[in-house]
Design a protein that fits this description.
The protein is mostly helical and 126 residues long. The protein has five helices and no strands. Helix 2 runs antiparallel to helix 3.
Length: 126
């Protein structure tokens, strides 16, 4: 098995240049800032609301399956809020056509939602 090191370096250099070009576009920078603001907002909101929701969840006594789902969601409350915020941001960006491409925001939304669903379901099924 022969590996052409110069071809690999050329491919990685080309990939780095394309990545830098993509990240330096203004609409991509706007989307990165929007995602960061949504994440910080979700973090702040989850830290403010988690104690109150946890107190209400402790009242659940009769249904252990419901309690398991509520606890799994409570542990990922930041991601619940982030997915909600990202979903709204995706809808707004696509409806107003601003920024010109909302691809990054929608991809982040889909990936975060998939991670949230998989993590909650796997925790619930355990």
């Amino acid at each position: 098995m022969n590996i052409d090191l110069s071809a690999l370096i050329a491919t990685l250099t080309n990939l780095a240049a394309l990545t830098l070009e993509y990240v330096s576009r203004p609409d991509t920078l706007y989307q990165i800032v929007i995602v960061a603001v949504l994440f910080v907002g979700a973090l702040f909101l989850s830290r403010r609301l988690q104690p109150a929701i946890e107190a209400r969840a402790r009242v659940i006594k009769g249904d252990p399956n419901l309690l398991r789902i509520v606890i799994a969601l409570l542990r990922r409350l930041q991601w619940v809020f982030f997915c909600a915020f990202a979903g709204v941001a995706t809808l707004l960006a696509q409806s107003f056509k601003w920024p010109a491409s909302s691809q990054l925001i929608s991809n982040v939304f889909v990936l975060a939602l998939a991670w949230l669903l998989i993590s909650v379901l796997s925790r619930t099924l355990r």
